[in-house]
Design goal:
Strand content: 5-15%
CATH architecture of the largest domain: 3-Layer(aba) Sandwich
Number of domains: 5
Shape: globular
Distance between the termini: 33 Å
Radius of gyration: 29 Å
Length: 731
């Protein structure tokens, strides 16, 4: 792994591995087949790109879209990695050059389409090319249970027969257990390692709203991210055109994208978005898989997607640089009916699967539970973050009604009185005191629950019924969705628990937004310098004919704007900068930083002081995860929040906090420890005059953890200038 670590630093500028990367790389190096599921932004590509550089021969990567292949090859070549693609858009001269590189064994990675790689003549060609291993990217496309099934992927099973002694590795960002098993079976993998990372994207903030004034709701998200990149998804092409036209009319730099447009127009608009000539793409699901843009700051679904897999994949296009991003979903019952009609019109063997996935999606929208927990649970994983601090539910942004208990009781009582004979619509008529003939004819005006919610609009009452269904207090049965009480509903009727009920979005009162992970990624940096760096990045990208993010990601520009390196040695320590990029770009970017600091003396920090020099040296010696933890602690985030954000164990994050406290000289532990507990620890330390933590722990009767004691004493030593914190007892 030391060799891989050196490769990672030299070509990609990263100091360490992300979760699951070492295991995936070991599979590649050993030749063991694997199915790797990592969320977008989790470092999937590096799992096979870095080992390809460490092995003899050339890796072949099967990729579904031409634009995706181009962006990945451009990014690799910019990093100094010998990579190429073969596709139908290339000239004969370009193809000849690639074939020459293959013959001369100069390439380490070759990207091809699934249709090309299984052609008999191409397979014969690859047999003489020294293939080290195969990668099937976007592997969920091979499964009918996947959210983007592509029949041409089924032919990839021929790779096993043609290359029985070569490893085959399948990669995807979104796959349920069923899909993972299907991938392994269809590709004829042999005892593959199933490596599944966390499906959680802690840097994404999920919000779900009933659609009322859709255009205003979309603009609300855009206006929260001025001059930043975003994607807006619609169901129908006509909706894309109308919404895009309205946004352009309102002064936004928006472009449409859907399958009804000609190829040139689609490519032109996608390139405008990728190259930052447009801020917004309004699209159908036809847009996205081929996008490798790392700095998408928001994704808005103007209507409900047709499955949680689609939603997870589409929202995953935001925040690929692991900086905060906003995901907003606007939905209505009409979306459910529209998707049902679309699915029924295109009836196939997978229709029943599609309908089931659609209902799962609608349940996600209507449930009042942590969004991160709901998504992770759907993919069969356990979510430990409590609360997540990054969704509308956990941020208390939903406008819960104060009398939820009495409203729920009225609804549940009505269902019980009707005796399992009515669906949501008829139950709503009874609860709102309807004078319709069918209600009066059945004598239901004499029920105790008749008119119990008459002061509320019928739509709102219907919404509450659906919320109780999603919370498991009611269930729907049969063709007509007849309502029935569940054991949980009976328990709620007895007052043993109180369901959560919220008002429809249009009726909610706006609350001030708390400071959460949705803080702008520019909040903690010099925004003026960041913009100056963006401009030189754009100019450099245009010069090279590549997208700006291929030159540097926003995360790299952010690090440059924050730390302001003065020379190439410092430039090489920035996030995501390897040797090739340092050599190619350092002079121009350093000049921008020098010029900006000269024009803005206030931007200069005390970077020449001994204290800051020591701190920066210490920071350079840490990996990116520790640096990010320090940034989050500087914002006052709790250990639990940082652990969730970084996908690390709390015990590991506690160590990061101690390092941050020591390096930054923090003297106040109150953001992480209650003041009353701090006082108790200091009092116990004074009373015991102990050199070790155990006597203090025992003096406090074991009521305060070792980690809490350590945090308090670290801050105390920063105040007094005393020596190092004593080692924790091991017994």
């Amino acid at each position: 792994m030391d060799k891989l670590r050196g490769i990672l630093k030299k070509y990609w500028g990263f100091d360490g591995f992300l979760p699951m990367q070492p295991d995936a790389m070991k599979c590649v190096l050993s030749g063991r087949d694997s199915v790797v599921v990592l969320p977008t932004g989790g470092g999937k590509s590096l799992c096979f790109q870095a080992p390809a550089m460490a092995m003899d021969g050339m890796a072949v990567v099967v990729s579904p879209l031409l634009s995706l292949m181009k962006d990945q090859v451009d990014a690799l070549r910019t990093n100094g990695v010998p990579a190429a693609k073969i596709d139908s858009t290339m000239t004969s001269l370009e193809r000849s050059n690639v074939h020459r590189e293959i013959r001369e064994h100069q390439l380490k990675l070759l990207y091809v389409s699934p249709e090309r790689v299984v052609q008999p003549q191409f397979i014969a060609y690859l047999r003489d090319a020294g293939v080290s291993f195969f990668v099937v990217d976007e592997a969920h496309c091979i499964s009918q249970w996947g959210h983007d099934f592509r029949p041409e992927y089924r032919a990839l099973r021929e790779l096993r027969q043609a290359f029985p002694d070569r490893g085959i590795h399948a990669y995807t960002a979104t796959a349920t257990t069923h899909v993972r098993e299907d991938i392994a079976r269809e590709l004829c993998l042999r005892e593959p390692a199933m490596l599944v990372g966390s499906f959680d994207r802690p840097n994404l903030v999920y919000r779900v709203q009933r659609r009322s004034d859709g255009f205003s709701q979309v603009r609300q998200v855009i206006d929260a991210h001025p001059k930043e990149s975003g994607i807006i998804y619609c169901i129908r092409r006509s909706e894309v055109d109308v919404l895009c036209e309205r946004l352009v009319g309102a002064g936004y730099r928006a472009r449409p994208y859907h399958a009804g447009m000609d190829d040139d127009s689609r490519k032109r608009n996608q390139d405008a978005f990728t190259n930052e000539k447009a801020d917004i793409i309004v699209a159908t699901v036809a847009f996205g898989m081929g996008i490798d843009k790392s700095n998408v700051r928001y994704v808005v679904h103007a209507a409900m997607p047709k499955s949680i897999e689609h939603y997870h994949q589409e929202t995953g296009r935001a925040g690929r640089d692991n900086l905060p991003a906003d995901c907003r979903l606007l939905y209505s019952y009409a979306d459910l009916r529209l998707w049902q009609s679309i699915i029924e019109k295109t009836a196939t063997d997978a229709t029943a699967i599609a309908v089931a996935k659609l209902r799962d999606m609608f349940q996600y929208c209507d449930r009042v539970v942590c969004r991160h927990r709901a998504l992770v649970s759907y993919f069969g994983q356990t979510y430990d973050g409590q609360p997540c601090g990054a969704c509308d539910v956990c941020l208390s942004e939903l406008d819960g009604i104060e009398d939820a208990g009495s409203v729920a009781t009225a609804i549940l009582s009505c269902v019980g009185e009707l005796g399992d004979i009515a669906g949501p619509t008829y139950t709503t008529l009874v609860l709102t005191g309807s004078q319709e003939e069918r209600v009066l004819a059945k004598g239901h005006q004499r029920l105790g629950s008749y008119g119990a919610l008459a002061s509320n609009e019928a739509r709102q009452v219907r919404d509450w019924i659906e919320q109780l269904v999603q919370q498991g207090c009611l269930r729907k049965t049969g063709e007509y969705n007849i309502l029935a009480l569940t054991p949980k509903g009976v328990s709620a009727l007895r007052g043993e628990e109180t369901p959560q009920l919220t008002r429809p979005y249009a009726k909610r009162v706006k609350k001030p937004q708390p400071r959460t992970q949705m803080a702008s990624p520019l909040d903690e940096i010099d925004q003026g310098l960041f913009e100056a760096l963006r401009q030189v990045r754009l100019a450099k990208a245009e010069e090279l004919g590549v997208p700006p993010f291929v030159v540097f990601s926003d995360a790299t520009l952010r690090d440059l704007a924050r730390r302001k390196p003065k020379d190439k040695a410092g430039f090489l320590t920035m996030y995501g900068i390897g040797e090739k990029k340092c050599e190619a770009f350092a002079d121009e970017f350093l000049e921008v930083i020098r010029r900006y600091c000269a024009d803005h003396p206030e931007a200069e920090t005390a970077s020449d002081s001994d204290e800051v020099a020591v701190a920066r040296k210490s920071e350079r010696n840490r990996n990116e995860t520790q640096r990010r933890a320090a940034e989050l602690f500087a914002q006052g985030r709790s250990i639990a929040e940082v652990a969730t954000f970084l996908q690390r164990k709390p015990s590991t994050v506690e160590g990061y906090l101690i390092e941050y406290l020591e390096d930054a000289g923090i003297t106040d532990p109150s953001p992480w420890v209650e003041p009353t507990v701090v006082a108790r620890v200091f009092k116990a330390a004074s009373a015991t005059k102990a050199e070790r933590l155990k006597p203090i722990f025992e003096h406090l009767n074991g009521e305060v953890s070792y980690s809490t004691i350590r945090i308090c004493l670290t801050c105390a030593r920063n105040t007094t200038g005393a020596g190092h914190l004593p080692e924790q007892d091991r017994e």
